[in-house]
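Data card: per-record layout.
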Amino acid sequence: MSTKMIRVLVLVCSTRPGAFGPAVGKWLVETITPRAVELGVELVPVALGDLDLPFLDEEEHPSSGVYRHERTRRWSAIVDAADGFIVVTPEYNYGMPATLKNALDYLVREWAWKPIGFVSYGNTSAGTRSVQHSKQVVTTLRLVPLASTVAIRISDAVENGRIRPNAALDEAAVGVLDELVRVAHALRPMRERARAGALPGPLPGSYVRRLIPEDAPEVTVLQRCCWVDEALANDTLAVPALHESPEQVREWLATWHTTGLWRDGRLLGMVRARCIDTDWHVGRLGVVPDLRGEGLGRWLLRTAEAAVEPNCRRIVLFTGADSQQNIGLYQSEGYQSASLVGADGTTCLAKDVTP
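The structure for this 355-residue chain is written out next.
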């Protein structure tokens, strides 16, 4: 399971003045917040009425991701950052509110491979026909609707404009959150592969993207399993990658250009690089032990080299002086020894940048 926090958008859909939706949304957030804390979930309430989304007025098709209006770009960012959704919706004439359909239609990629649960309310059907209507639409956007739902019959559950205490409704609401979190974790690899900036990797089903500070837990685990061999080869435990905390990793991820290779939500390898004066420094090249010998390290190295900045004249890297396997790889890629063994037991290799 991923170590990242799950962000859940609680979307209140009714925009009618005096609507009951805000009261339902408030009850829902208050009811599930204790469980959200236990599960490491961030709840983000959003009212459609606050988004200023007119009926779809973008010139380009939503699948293009080209948005002319700032309000669309803002909505895109909100949805893109979410891992799942709980929709609080009334039923209007056997269907969902037009405002919900419109909000869904604005975007495409941002919805894909995320779970969506429903809390409906109404009179005769408790809003369930709205949910049925919504499920037909959301699956087209590659959203994954949950089986768990909450259906509130206003005449039975409401008193003085509020949801009266009801253990069964509370339990159902927590059940929606529990299922949503499980599905969100299971779908994360699908979301990662579909996210903006992800490119195909060298292995079937793999992809690469730039690592960000939020990836620190996965990077920390990768370092701990990859740099053991480095420590053994050089007969020292003074290898920074073995001792860095997630907080320290988070700090350097913010300043280095780091490429991560992923498959099915697992970080398989990485390499980082940045410009210092006129040198392009490459480091932290690592591949999980069970996939070594597949050419992934060489592929990641070349990826880092391809990103060299224009003002850099040479590429430099460091490795343990006794890491013969690493040195052999670098020499086969044109690197030559650039200095004697340093005080920290590392040796520097370099090669000129090819024009």
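Known properties of this structure: The mean pLDDT is 92. The longest helix spans residues 167-194.

See the next section for split statistics.
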